[in-house]
Design a protein that fits this description.
mainly alpha
Length: 397
């Protein structure tokens, strides 16, 4: 479907990026603010931790059903409902800071976010042909990363300096993405949607069960690097005694991740995924080990090595997001692209959740140094999956 010229000028790419930027802006602003709002209402640490846990739980549960919803209802209704569910509930937080209310809002927003994540990455595969898919995934990744870079750190400042209501209003930005979503739906071709089972006879050589098996490899590679990244996003402020250093490290990781996810797609289109994949997996382990060493001293973090380590993890974190999504689309036929998007997003969010929960438990029982080393070792353990040469591309991929 795509021709020459800049990737963002391909039909549908500009609406996709506008929709994604608006949607992820609404998601990012409350990721740090909603737990703080629950604390304002009297919730303890455990209650505040539940806020994003509930968001993530409902996100993953929803992602499993989005392919069927797209097949049954079509792009426009699914995108519109998803953006409304992500954008409208946050404004209701102005009415109450009770923990039950905050958790209920998080659950509804999780459903909307699950829709946004699966439809966004699935649309990339439908808008461009395989020869430029890595570049398109990179552009999409940049639209996703930019709001996180700006609004994740800005959220608490906005809430404390201007008032929580400002953050709640900003969280409604996904609603502003609905016109772009409708333009995107009009561009997507009918054959970018999964065929309805009644519309075609099942392909015995490409059943969904076989697609799940082929998608397991990229999902595991993604899960382990997002486990590491999720641990750093969650616990860096606790591991580093100087807030400015912690913020600088997270900013550096975010910038490296965004640039890596954006630019590595072009290289993957030219040189293939495999030769880029192999070095990034051990790089995650090296980066996590260096972070662990940097925060091991009880007298304070080693600032220079900590910043370098966050840069290294950011490079692998962003690069592997792009490469594993590209691997997922290549591993299955076009009729299973929605399924590939769903499985990839489940791996991303499940890894992030495990990074928060598992590393937190290990750190409480031992230390952050030990927990980070374990997370890095888990990432390196997937190196055999990265070293394995892929088979022939699927027909229609």
């Amino acid at each position: 479907m795509s021709a020459g010229g800049p990737i963002w000028r391909q039909p549908g790419m500009a609406p996709l990026m506008a929709m994604s930027c608006a949607g992820f802006s609404g998601y990012a602003i409350l990721l740090t603010v909603a737990p703080l709002w629950a604390v304002e209402g009297g919730a303890g640490t455990a209650g505040a931790g539940l806020v994003n846990g509930v968001l993530l739980l409902f996100t993953v549960l929803t992602q499993l059903f989005v392919p069927r919803a797209l097949r049954t209802l079509g792009w426009a209704p699914v995108l519109t409902v998803g953006l409304l569910l992500l954008g409208v509930p946050g404004v209701l937080l102005t009415l109450s800071d009770d923990l039950c209310v905050v958790l209920a809002v998080s659950a509804v927003r999780g459903v909307g976010f699950g829709v946004l994540t699966v439809t966004g990455s699935a649309a990339v595969a439908g808008l461009v042909d395989a020869r430029r898919r890595g570049e398109a995934i990179g552009a999409y990744g940049l639209a996703v990363a930019a709001p996180n870079l700006v609004l994740l750190p800005a959220g608490p400042w906005l809430a404390e300096s201007l008032g929580y209501w400002v953050a709640f209003v900003v969280s409604a930005l996904p609603v502003a993405g609905i016109p772009a979503a409708l333009r995107l739906a009009s561009v997507l071709r009918p054959d970018t949607q999964e065929p309805h089972p009644a519309a075609e006879s099942p392909d015995p050589h490409d059943p969904a069960s076989a697609a799940y098996v082929r998608l397991l490899r990229p999902m595991l590679l993604l899960l382990t690097v997002t486990l590491a990244g999720g641990a750093l996003v969650t616990f860096t402020p606790q591991m580093v005694d100087r807030p400015s250093v912690a913020a600088g490290g997270l900013l550096l990781m975010g910038l490296a991740s965004a640039l890596s996810r954006w630019r590595i797609g072009v290289l993957a289109d030219r040189h293939g995924v495999h030769r880029l994949l192999v070095p990034l997996v051990p790089l995650t382990g090296v980066g996590m080990a260096l972070v662990a060493w940097s925060v091991a001293d009880s007298d304070g973090a080693r600032v220079g090595s900590f910043l370098v380590a966050m840069l290294l993890v950011g490079l692998s974190y962003g690069g592997l997001q792009n490469l594993t999504l590209l691997m997922s689309f290549t591993a299955v036929s076009r009729r299973h692209h929605h399924l590939a998007s769903a499985v990839w997003n489940v791996g991303f969010d499940a890894g992030t959740a495990l990074g928060s929960v598992a590393v937190g438990v290990i750190a409480e029982l031992t230390s952050f140094t030990t927990a980070l080393l374990v997370a890095g070792a888990i990432a390196v353990a997937t190196l055999p999956l990265a070293l394995r040469r892929p088979g022939s591309p699927r027909v229609g991929a």
